[in-house]
Design goal:
- The chain has 438 residues and is mainly α.
- It has helices at 2-19, 24-38, 55-86, 89-101, 106-119, 124-142, 149-158, 170-179, 187-214, 237-240, 242-258, 262-277, 285-314, 317-327, 333-348, 351-368, 373-384, 394-403, 408-435.
- Helix 7 runs parallel beside helix 19.
- It starts with a helix and ends with a helix.
Length: 438
């Protein structure tokens, strides 16, 4: 019992400290320490048996493992976003979009841009880095409250695209290994759920922004924002779209052979394309690259701190007990599977982590019961994209704090509504549709 209190109490404390704005490099290891102590984990490897779990080793393995896997993608993604901003390409594209679809649809433009890149195979983190400069410019021109930018970025990336049939994102591919399905599993239900999440989520986002503006909120500039006002000339908007196309095409071509490593090549190609096409428009190319590199270090450190917390959580006996309880929930196997994956994703702060931990246990059991593997695939995929977006989630922290420079207090209410509640409703809809035989 004490271990479970430590497990969920540590998670609750981490969420609370995150919402209060505490530095994650301090909050994450402190709360992980609480989890470890209450679960009886030795603090240091010297105090544990050889190879046994301990607080220091498990935390740092999660921390350094994430950096080792993702640093170059964070680096190239952050630099790509900065050179798009410094060259004026982001502003040029945003102004062109506004001229075509109107100022009132600026939010829709951001959502669509994220959706296209996500469904094209670009990593969620990289999409946020890449689209943020354009989103900032669009919100500034439309005079919209900037605290809604993270919500718009996340909504376009992690809801109706990330877990839908055919998506190349890892959240749609992990179930294949355990269920013997394809990326298009349950596509009929997936289309209905995706359309629901897209329409309902966009309506809700627009309603929140409209209410904020009715209360007097507008776009507020910062000293760190690019000084677009002094520019007298911007690059051609259609040519400025080419680097985004380069990222999309290269990631698509090499996705099957290189997996996530394809993004390093794709983003490097995007940086090169931006430089070649818009070279004469740069204000300071070297400075943009340097700022992008610094931003990448901050972003990945914050995210890795939370992943380290998940590394300690997964090593505790209470976590194993919680997983066992979730996977044995009576009733419809789809409900039990969805809930198990969602809760584990919340505990670890990772949608892919929730699937990777739960499916080895769920899949054999449910398949033996005759559960439709395609229905299980789609249900757990959608559910993995819900509680993974609690305030302490790595993607959440990176997007809100490191990329957009907002506080959780200002940005998370809308962010959480769109990335936790909307997918959760989508899971319920998917279970109902599969239960009806669709």
């Amino acid at each position: 019992m004490l271990g479970l209190i430590g497990l969920f109490g540590g998670l609750a404390l981490l969420i609370y400290l995150t919402m209060k704005g505490m530095n994650l490099l301090i909050a994450a290891p402190l709360t992980a320490l609480l989890v470890g102590v209450l679960n009886g984990l030795p603090l240091f490897p010297q105090l544990a048996e050889e190879g046994a779990a301990n607080f220091l080793t498990n935390y740092m393995t999660g921390f350094t493992g994430f950096i080792a896997s993702w640093y170059l993608m964070f680096l190239t993604g952050a630099i790509f976003g900065k050179v798009m901003e410094d060259s004026g390409a982001a502003d040029s594209v945003s102004k062109w979009i506004v001229s075509k679809i109107g100022m009132k649809r600026a939010v829709l433009a951001v959502v669509i841009a994220c959706a296209v890149l996500t469904y094209g195979g670009v990593s969620l983190f990289v999409v946020a880095f890449s689209v943020y400069p354009m989103a900032l410019s669009l919100f500034r021109q439309a005079d919209l409250p900037r605290r809604f930018i993270p919500a718009a970025l996340a909504f376009g990336s992690t809801t109706f695209t990330m877990t839908s049939a055919g998506s190349p994102e890892i959240q749609n591919w992990i179930p294949i290994e355990f269920l013997g399905t394809t990326p298009y599993a349950g596509w009929e239900v997936s289309i209905i759920v995706a359309i629901f999440m897209m329409v309902f989520g966009y309506w809700w986002l627009k309603k929140m922004i409209t209410k904020a503006m009715a209360n007097g909120e507008r776009f507020v500039g910062r000293e760190t924002d690019p000084t677009v006002e002094v520019r007298t000339e911007l690059p051609n908007p259609l040519l400025s779209l080419i680097p985004l196309g380069v990222v999309l095409i290269i990631s698509f071509i090499f996705h099957d052979s290189l997996k996530t490593s394809a993004l390093i090549i794709a983003l490097s190609g995007g940086i090169l394309a931006t430089y070649v096409i818009n070279r004469k428009y740069f204000q300071d190319f070297g400075k943009a690259v340097g700022e992008g590199a610094l931003g990448a270090v901050i972003a990945i450190a914050n995210t890795a701190a939370v992943v380290g917390f998940g590394g300690v959580v997964k090593a505790t006996p209470s976590f194993e007990a919680a997983v066992g309880f979730m996977t044995d929930i009576p009733g419809s196997p789809l409900i039990g599977g969805a809930l198990a994956v969602a809760v584990i994703a919340g505990l670890t702060g990772s949608s892919s982590g929730g699937q990777a931990i739960a499916l080895p246990l769920l899949a054999p059991h449910y398949l033996d019961l005759g559960v439709d593997p395609e229905a299980l695939h789609r249900t757990v995929a959608i559910s993995s994209g819900s509680l993974d977006s609690l305030p302490q989630g790595g993607y959440v922290v990176t997007t809100i704090r490191s990329i957009a420079g907002e506080t959780h207090k200002d940005a998370y209410p809308a962010f959480g509504a769109l990335t936790v509640i909307v997918p959760a409703i989508g899971v319920v809809l998917a279970v109902l549709l599969f239960s009806l035989g669709l």
